C-alpha cells in the first residue's frame, strides 16, 4: 500500500467513511506491524495538528483581541501599578545578595572595631603594667613547701606548725632591744599570726601593735615567753633626709637565706611624687619588703616598700622620718612606755662585711599565716 | 458567593459550547488579572502572562469543545493552577540556579494540573512547529492544504479554484504538499515519548 493510498484510507477512516472490511484490515495490520502502527499514529497526529492549527489560529486571534480590549479597558485603571521594570543584572545581583552582603559588612565592621578596641585596651593595659607599683611581699611556694614536708618528714616533733613557712613572707628589723620590731604594713596585711625568724634560726612569735596603711608601716612586738631581748642594736635612726647619690644598702629575705643589696639613693621622692619615700637603685625582689635601708655610716634611713615593674632600677623605701613621727604620734595605750631608740651607732667607720655581720642578727624574716 | 461563581462558570462553559463571543471575553476579563498578578509578582512581564494565560485557555477551550472537561473546581482555580504550573516550569528552565523542577507547594490538584500543563506545552510546541512548517511550505501548497483541512473545502472545489485538470491531479498535488509539510513539521517537532 502506498503512502498516498494509506493517507486517503486514514482520512476516510477518520471521517467514518470506511467500509467495515477496510477498517478491520487496518486494525489488524496495526496490531501485527508496530512500524506500520507508528506510521499511522504519526499520520494521525500530523493531520490532527494541522486541523488544530487552523482552529487555534482563529482562537488565538480572538484571544489577542480580547487581550487588547482588556488592556484598553484596564490600562487607565491601573497604570502599570504592579508592573516591575526589567531589572539590570546589577540590580538582580543586589537583590539576591543584599542580605548576605549586609551580614558580611556587619561582621566586618564589628570585627574591625572590636579588634581595634581590643588592641587599644591591650596596649593601655600593658602600658599600665609597665608602670605598675608592686609591693614586695613574697608568696611562699606551695609546691615547694609540700616537697619540703615530704623530704623532711619529722613525725618526732609534735609542733607540726613549726615547719610551716607560712603563706607570705617579708623582711623586718628590730626597732628596740626590748622587743619592738618594724616591717611593712602590706607584709602582715590580713595575717592571723606572725612569726619572725633570723639567719641563725631564732624564732619568735610576734603580735601587731599598730599599722599605718597610708605610710605602709607596721609596728610589731615579740610576745614569745622565751624572749629575753634582742641585745644592743648596732644602728641608729636618722631623722633628717638623706642626700641624693648617697650609697645605701639593705638586707632582706627574698628567699630562704638573707640577701644583701646595694645601690644609691636616686631620688628623694617616691612613686607618683610621694615625698614620704625615697627612690633607690637596689635590685629588689618579692620578700624584700619591710627590710631596713641603711646608709654607709650605718644609719637606718628607710623601710623597703616596693618597686616599679617595667622601670629599670626603681625601688622605693619609706623614709625613716616617717617611722619616727609615727612612733611619736602613737597613743599611750598602744605603746606603754616611751620607746628607747638606740642612740649610738656601732657601724660607722667599719667595712661593709663587718657591718653586715653585726646587722644580720637584727634583720628577721617575717612569716605570715592566714 | 460560591453559587454565583458556579453560575458564572456554567454560563461560560455553555457560552463556549454555543460559540458565544462574549463568553471568551468574560473569561478573559474575569481571570486574566489574577494570572497577570501572579506572573508579575514572580519576575514576569505582562506578555509572559498573556502567553501563559492563552495557553491555558486554549487547553480549557478545546476540552470544553471536545466535551472532555472534568472540572472538580471553579474555572478560576483550574486556570490559575495550570498557569502557575506552566510559569514555574518556564522559570525553572530559564533559571541558572535550579536544575530540577520547581517544587510546587501550593497545588491542590497536582496530577490533573500536571497533565493539563503538559498538554498545554505540547500544544504550544505543536502549534509553533506547524506554523513554521506552513510558513516554509510556500504557495500554493499552503493555501491548498489550509483550504482542504482547515476550511474543509471539498476536492472538486479545490480543483476548480486552483485550476487543476481533474480531481485526481488535485489529490496528487495535495498529497505531495502534505508529505512535504509532514517532513517539515517533524523536523521541528519531536513526538513526546
UniProtKB/TrEMBL annotation, chain A:
One Pfam family of this chain: Trypsin_2
Coiled-coil stretches: none
GO molecular function, one term: serine-type endopeptidase activity
Secreted in keyword set: no
Domain of life, source organism: Bacteria
Keywords annotated in UniProt: Hydrolase, Membrane, Protease, Transmembrane, Transmembrane helix
Keyword Hydrolase annotated: yes
GO biological process, alphabetically ordered: proteolysis
InterPro entries documented for this protein: Peptidase_S1_PA (IPR009003), Peptidase_S1_PA_chymotrypsin (IPR043504), Peptidase_S1C (IPR001940)
Membrane-crossing segments per the record: 97-119
PANTHER family: PROTEASE DO-LIKE 5, CHLOROPLASTIC, SERINE ENDOPROTEASE DEGS
Protein's recorded name: Serine protease
From TrEMBL, chain B:
TM regions (residue ranges): none
A single GO molecular function term of this UniProt record: DNA binding
UniProt keyword Transcription regulation, yes or no: yes
Keywords: DNA-binding, Sigma factor, Transcription, Transcription regulation
Example of a GO biological process term: DNA-templated transcription initiation
Highest rank taxon of the organism: Bacteria
InterPro entries attached to this UniProt entry: RNA_pol_sigma-70-like (IPR039425), RNA_pol_sigma-70_dom (IPR014284), RNA_pol_sigma70_r2 (IPR007627), RNA_pol_sigma_r2 (IPR013325), WH-like_DNA-bd_sf (IPR036388)
Segment forming the signal sequence: none
Start and end residues of each RNA polymerase sigma-70 region domain: 27-96
Name this polypeptide is given: Sigma-70 family RNA polymerase sigma factor
Source species: Rufibacter immobilis
Amino acid at each position: 500500500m502506498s503512502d498516498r493510498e494509506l493517507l486517503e484510507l486514514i482520512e476516510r477512516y477518520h471521517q467514518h467513511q470506511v467500509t467495515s472490511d477496510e477498517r478491520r484490515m487496518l486494525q489488524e495490520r496495526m496490531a501485527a506491524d508496530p512500524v506500520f502502527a507508528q506510521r499511522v499514529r504519526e499520520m494521525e497526529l500530523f493531520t490532527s495538528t494541522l486541523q488544530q492549527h487552523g482552529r487555534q489560529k482563529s482562537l488565538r486571534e480572538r484571544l489577542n483581541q480580547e487581550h487588547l480590549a482588556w488592556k484598553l479597558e484596564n490600562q487607565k485603571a491601573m497604570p502599570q501599578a504592579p508592573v516591575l521594570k526589567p531589572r539590570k543584572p546589577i540590580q538582580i545581583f543586589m537583590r539576591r545578595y543584599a542580605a548576605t552582603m549586609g551580614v558580611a559588612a556587619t561582621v566586618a565592621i564589628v570585627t574591625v572595631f572590636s579588634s581595634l578596641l581590643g588592641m587599644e585596651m591591650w596596649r593601655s593595659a600593658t602600658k599600665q603594667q609597665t608602670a605598675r607599683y608592686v609591693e614586695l611581699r613574697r608568696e611562699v611556694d606551695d609546691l615547694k613547701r609540700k616537697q619540703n614536708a615530704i623530704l623532711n618528714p619529722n613525725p618526732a616533733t609534735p609542733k607540726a606548725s613549726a615547719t610551716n613557712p607560712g603563706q607570705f613572707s617579708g623582711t623586718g628589723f628590730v626597732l628596740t632591744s626590748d622587743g619592738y620590731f618594724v616591717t611593712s604594713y602590706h607584709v602582715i596585711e590580713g595575717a592571723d599570726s606572725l612569726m619572725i625568724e633570723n639567719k641563725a634560726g631564732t624564732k619568735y612569735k610576734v603580735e601587731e601593735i599598730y599599722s599605718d596603711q597610708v605610710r605602709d608601716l607596721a609596728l610589731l612586738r615579740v610576745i614569745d615567753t622565751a624572749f629575753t631581748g634582742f641585745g644592743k642594736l648596732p644602728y641608729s635612726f636618722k631623722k633628717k633626709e638623706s642626700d641624693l647619690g648617697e650609697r645605701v644598702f639593705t638586707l632582706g629575705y627574698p628567699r630562704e637565706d638573707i640577701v644583701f643589696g646595694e645601690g644609691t639613693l636616686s631620688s628623694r621622692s617616691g612613686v607618683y611624687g610621694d615625698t614620704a619615700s625615697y627612690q633607690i637603685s637596689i635590685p629588689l625582689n618579692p620578700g624584700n619588703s619591710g627590710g631596713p635601708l641603711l646608709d654607709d655610716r650605718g644609719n637606718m634611713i628607710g623601710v623597703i616598700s616596693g618597686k616599679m615593674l617595667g622601670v629599670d632600677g626603681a625601688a622605693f623605701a619609706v623614709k625613716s622620718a616617717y617611722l619616727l613621727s609615727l612612733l611619736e604620734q602613737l597613743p599611750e595605750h598602744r605603746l606603754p612606755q616611751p620607746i628607747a631608740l638606740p642612740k649610738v651607732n656601732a657601724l660607722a667607720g667599719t667595712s661593709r662585711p663587718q657591718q653586715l655581720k653585726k646587722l644580720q642578727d637584727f634583720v628577721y624574716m617575717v612569716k605570715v599565716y592566714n | 458567593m460560591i453559587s454565583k461563581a458556579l453560575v458564572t462558570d456554567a454560563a461560560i462553559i455553555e457560552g463556549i459550547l454555543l460559540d458565544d463571543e462574549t463568553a471568551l471575553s468574560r473569561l478573559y476579563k474575569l481571570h486574566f488579572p489574577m494570572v497577570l498578578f501572579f506572573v508579575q509578582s514572580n519576575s514576569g512581564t505582562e506578555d509572559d502572562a498573556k502567553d501563559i494565560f492563552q495557553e491555558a485557555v486554549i487547553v480549557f477551550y478545546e476540552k470544553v469543545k471536545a466535551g472532555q472537561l472534568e472540572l472538580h473546581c471553579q474555572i478560576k482555580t483550574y486556570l490559575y493552577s495550570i498557569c502557575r504550573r506552566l510559569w514555574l516550569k518556564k522559570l525553572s528552565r530559564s533559571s541558572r540556579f535550579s536544575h530540577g523542577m520547581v517544587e510546587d507547594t501550593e497545588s491542590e490538584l497536582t496530577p490533573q494540573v500536571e497533565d493539563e500543563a503538559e498538554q498545554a506545552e505540547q500544544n504550544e510546541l505543536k502549534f509553533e512547529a506547524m506554523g513554521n512548517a506552513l510558513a516554509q511550505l510556500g504557495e500554493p501548497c499552503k493555501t491548498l492544504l489550509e483550504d482542504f483541512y482547515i476550511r474543509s473545502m471539498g476536492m472538486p472545489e479545490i480543483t476548480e479554484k486552483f485550476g487543476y485538470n481533474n480531481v485526481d491531479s488535485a489529490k496528487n498535488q495535495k498529497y505531495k504538499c502534505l508529505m512535504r509539510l509532514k517532513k517539515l513539521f517533524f523536523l521541528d517537532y519531536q513526538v513526546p515519548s
